[in-house]
């Protein structure tokens, strides 16, 4: 039942991206089409955050390029080390999301998924990216090599009133290739869609 909390923000995420594209890229039809579908974009991640009662749920989706610097399967020792390091950092969400100790949050469940972690690639995503560009030779070659990293966390917080903000500063510091994060936030004050950057990392619930 808890996972249903994220159905609403995920449904709205492509709309939020489309609206942002309208505001910034209204004269670039191809870019607008690409962004309005919530497409894979290097440097951009997506985060859903839901605070309900004592339950906090965070779901992060990011191109692997933002977190490890590449999207192909790791074959060299150096690449494998980068994947291992990124996974270890993602396995410490209390640090990554700077959750205040006063909130008394403990991890209930966490799940990490990515083709780079040995999970099955999302074939639909790959094919959609390739098929929607009907320009043949003009298609961007890297599309077939897209890899995403998904991280899903659930916390139980003893004092949720201490969770007034969500600070993404450590996330940007840990993964500096991430330029911005499109956020859907649901908390006591309602729902909001915001864009976080390394210069504006604090989100208010």
Automatic annotation (TrEMBL):
InterPro entries the record matches: ZrgA-like
Biased composition (Basic and acidic residues): 119-144
Domain of life per record: Bacteria
Signal peptide interval: 1-20
Keywords: Signal
Region called Disordered, residue ranges: 116-144
Transmembrane segments: none
Protein name per Swiss-Prot or TrEMBL: Zinc-binding protein
Organism: Pseudomonas mucidolens
